[in-house]
Fold:
Amino acid sequence: MKKKLLALSLALAFTSTSAILHAEGTIRAGKEKAAACISCHGDNGNSLVSTFPKLAEQHSSYLIKQLQAFKTGARKNPMMSAIAMGLSDADMVDIAAYYAAQKVSANELPILDDDEDEKPATTDAEKKTNDKDPLQAIIAQGSDLYRNGDLSREVSACIACHGPFGEGNKPAAFPALKSQHADYLIKTLTDFKTDARSNNPENMMHMIAKKMTDEEIKAVSYRISMMK
Structure:
């Protein structure tokens, strides 16, 4: 009996070691294949330009799904489509594994434009928040929307799909959002709202974004950009 248990333990140990070595090999291969991505998405997937998304710590399932959409033309972007066309399924798996293994960088606090800072209050709620720091008031608004949504207008809470800390949902391929650039998030939500990003018009994000005001899009984007 003891010999059988020992044999089973050794088999499991070898299997685990093999899986770890395979995963490390995939990540190393992904790093080499991602060399062309650095100019836009930055070293280790942390882009320095706020309109280009960070890929670090993103779920591999989501990254593969998006690369496939770029390759088939389901998601429109001339630059990304051209890059994805040259990738095999194995390349996508390797690149996604590499970025998923990286650590996403934290963001600095967003800087409000002068016109945002001096925006006059029009409701009682806005008059109350004007007593606070304007930036913190916007982030607080975004935090409430992220966690609770707005049931009166059927705006779903972001937490339902993207988690309490913006960690996303890997099995469902719902993206991690934490520490993403606010500018990129604003553009993405606006694109969903206007159908500029229309690979799936029935997508939940289209339905949610269309019911959000520009102010709400900015507020929730600011809040998500501060999540760690």
